[in-house]
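Lab meeting minutes (informal)
Scribe: AK
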Amino acid sequence: MLPHDLPQRLEALAALADPVRRRLYEAVTGSADPVSRDRAARSAGVSRALAAFHLEKLVDAGLLESSFKRLSGRTGPGAGRTSKLYARSGLRVDVSLPERRYEWAAHMLARALADVSSAESVAALQRSARAHGESVGREQAGQEPSAVGRSANSERRDPEVPSLEQAKRALESCGFEPAEGAAGELLLRNCPFDRLRDGCRELVCGMNLSLIEGVISSLAAEGVTASLEPGPGRCCVVLRVAGER
C-alpha cells in the first residue's frame, strides 16, 4: 500500500522541478532570516514579478511559509507598507518506494539507549560518532584541489583555506546548513537528527557534538572548537575559532 500522504510529498518535490523555483528556494533557505521578494529575485537573477509567482507556488506546496513585516523598522503613519517575507516551513519530505522506516528504527534505538544509558554505552556512541565524523572530514580533505598528489603522510589542511571555511564545507555535505553568525561564529541552521531528539535530547546532542568534533579533528582545522549551545530553530552545536566569542 502506498503511503497516505504520498501525493503531498510528490507535489512538494515536483514544485522544485523548475530551475528558477529551485534557485528561489535555495535563496530563502540559505538565509538565516526571512527573505523578501526583492531579495529573493536578486539572488535568483529573475524579475520581482517572476519571483513572486514562484515563491507563492512554493508556499502552496508547503515548502515555504510567508509572513508580513515592515522592513523599515518604523511604525505608525509614514512607516511604509509591509513586505511579504518567506522562510522555510517545517515540512520534511522523504519519498521511498516501497516504504522504508529507517527513521523509526533510529528513534527506537535512540530511545532504548537513552533508557538504559550508562557511562560505557554513551561513551561507545560518542566514539562511534567521532569516528564517523573523522571519515567525513577525511573525505572532504581529499576533495580539496591542493590535496591532489599529496602523499598519505602529508599535511591534509590547505593553508590557503581558513579552518572555519573547511569545517563549513564538510558540514554542508552532512546537511547541517552552516551559516556565519553575528559574532563570526558558525551556526548550523539544520539538525539532521532533529526527529530523534524527543525524549533523548542529551544523548542525541552529545552524539552530534562528537560527530562534529571528529570532522574538525580529521580536517586539522586549527583553532576551531565546537560546543553545545542550544538555540531555537537550529542545531545545538556552535563552532568558533579560538579567541572569538
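Next up, CB showed the second protein from the same session:
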Amino acid sequence: MNKLLCPSMMCVDYDALKEKVIELDRAGIDIFHCDIMDGMFVPNITMGTLDVKAIKKNTNKLVDVHLMIENPLNKIDLFIDAGADLIYVHPESERYTIKTLQYIINRNRLAGIAINPDTTVETVYEMLNLVSYILVMSVTPGYAGQQFLEFTVDKIKKLVDLKKQFTYKIIVDGGITPEKIDELSAIGVDGFILGTSVLFNQTKDYQEIIKEIRGL
C-alpha cells in the first residue's frame, strides 16, 4: 500500500518557507498538513490563512488544514479561499459538526474529522458517512514533539475495520516514528503526519528521508 506522507508545516523553518515547500514537494510528499490553532480550543496559536496561501502558491499537491479552533464553520470560507483542499474539524469544537462537514463538501472540498485521544469511535460514527479522511490524534493536540499514546492503537484498529463500510482514509498524527509507520501501516493506516520525530530537524535531507519511509 502506498503511504500518504504529510509533513507538519508548523515544524518547518519559516525563514525559508517557500524553499522548504518546494523541497518537500520534490521529495515526493503527498499532502501538506497545516495545524491551525486559535489559543482557545487548544492552548497554542500557530498557523493562519496567509501561511496556507503561501504554501498553496508553491505546490500543486493537496494542502490540508487541521482546524483546532472554536466554531470552525465561521472560518471555513477563509481557509478555502486561502487554498485548502482538505479541511479537518473536531467534533467537540461546535454544536453541529454534520452541518460543517456538509458545508465543506458543498464548497467542493474534502471533509475530514480529527479525533482526539479521548474521543470514542462511537461518538463520531454518524459522521463517517460524510468524511473523506479521518485524522486520528495519537497525542493531545496543541504542541509538537509529544510521545505516541499507545492506547490510541485500539481506536485505530476499530476505524480500520469500519473502512469496509465507508470510504475514508485514515491518517495518524502525533509522535510518528519509522517504527510506528511500519507497525500502523501493517494494521491498515493509510497515511501519517510527519513532524519532528521523523522528518524535521534531521541530518538527512527530505528526499532521503521520504525514500526511506516509502521503503518501510
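CB comment: Strands lie at 4-7, 31-37, 62-68, 86-89, 110-115, 133-137, 169-173, 191-194.
No objections, moving on.
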